[in-house]
């Protein structure tokens, strides 16, 4: 009979730990882990057992209170953002207006799309190949994209070249992107800022009848 009562008390003690763990109280879980090895000793003394359970109960209340306050403070955190005054730089905005005039109704124009929203790595490659190719276009964007007005199929990617495109590192990147777009059957052209307001110059280059032997490169 005594053994049964001791077993019930011990089971009751473990029940407290299970309930607290289900409340996801990390602090109490750590305390339970530390106290666990002494449960056998504690179960042999009922008064000592009740004292320990009372202490653990108050620890649980404190831990739950801390957890709830932390959770509440997280929800009440104010987001610190500000809106850009202009989505496009001045030179990009000027070129966009010129591009609108040059393209007319022949294309839909998108500004600064992610390359990953335009191109996808082909299926059937092993994991290493897929990861390498995906990294080439990950977190990249192109300045402007011309799409078919009926199907929205991407047709021409356009880079507005400023002085940053003259660096050796950037030239290597541009050459790689050119090969990537060509492999996907797209045109990838570079327009120098000096020609960014020349409507006829740009219209001739984006014309669908443009010389397919020289469909990529500098406009």
Describe the structure using short key phrases.
alpha/beta; 219 residues; single chain; 52% helix
Protein model, in words:
The chain folds into two domains: 74 residues, no CATH class; 129 residues. It is an alpha/beta fold. The relative contact order is 0.09. A five-stranded mixed β-sheet has the order 1-2-3-4-5, with helices on both faces. It is built from eight helices and five strands. Strand 2 and strand 3 form a beta hairpin.
Assign the structural class, choosing from mainly alpha, mainly beta, alpha/beta, alpha+beta, or little secondary structure: alpha/beta
Instruction: Describe the main β-sheet briefly.
Output: 5 strands, mixed
Q: Give the SSE string.
A: HHHHHEHEEHEHE
Helix content: 40-55%
The radius of gyration over CA amounts to: 33 Å
Biggest sheet strand line-up = 1-2-3-4-5
Tally of DSSP helical segments: 8
Strand content: 5-15%
Structurally, the number of domains stands at 2
Overall pLDDT level: 78
Overall geometry: elongated
- Low-confidence runs: 5-21, 211-215
Number of strands: 5
Distance from N terminus to C terminus (CA atoms, Å) equals 95 Å
Brief synopsis:
The protein has 219 residues and is an alpha/beta fold.
Which helices and strands, and how do they pair?
Elements lengths: L1 H21 L3 H10 L3 H4 L3 H30 L14 H14 L4 E4 L15 H11 L6 E4 L6 E8 L6 H16 L3 E6 L6 H8 L10 E2 L1
Parallel strand pairs: 3-4, 4-5
Antiparallel strand pairs: 1-2, 2-3
Helix pairs in contact: 1-4, 2-4, 5-8
């Amino acid at each position: 009979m005594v053994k049964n009562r001791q077993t019930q008390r011990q089971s009751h003690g473990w029940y407290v730990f299970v309930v607290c763990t289900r409340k996801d109280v990390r602090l109490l879980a750590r305390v339970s882990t530390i106290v666990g090895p002494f449960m056998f000793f504690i179960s042999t003394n009922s008064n000592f057992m009740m004292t320990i359970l009372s202490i653990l109960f108050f620890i649980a209340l404190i831990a739950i209170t801390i957890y709830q306050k932390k959770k509440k403070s997280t929800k009440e955190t104010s987001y610190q953002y500000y809106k850009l005054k202009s989505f496009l730089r001045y030179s990009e905005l000027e070129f966009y207006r010129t591009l609108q005039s040059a393209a007319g109704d022949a294309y839909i124009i998108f500004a600064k799309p992610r390359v990953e929203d335009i191109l996808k790595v082909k299926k059937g490659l092993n994991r290493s190949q897929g990861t390498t190719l995906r990294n080439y276009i990950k977190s990249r964007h192109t300045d402007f994209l011309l799409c078919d007005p009926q199907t929205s199929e991407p047709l021409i990617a356009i880079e507005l070249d400023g002085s940053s495109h003259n660096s050796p590192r950037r030239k290597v990147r541009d050459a790689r992107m050119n090969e990537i777009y060509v492999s996907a059957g797209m045109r990838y052209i570079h327009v120098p800022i000096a020609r960014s307001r020349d409507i006829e110059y740009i219209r001739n280059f984006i014309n669908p009848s443009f010389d397919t032997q020289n469909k990529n490169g500098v406009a």
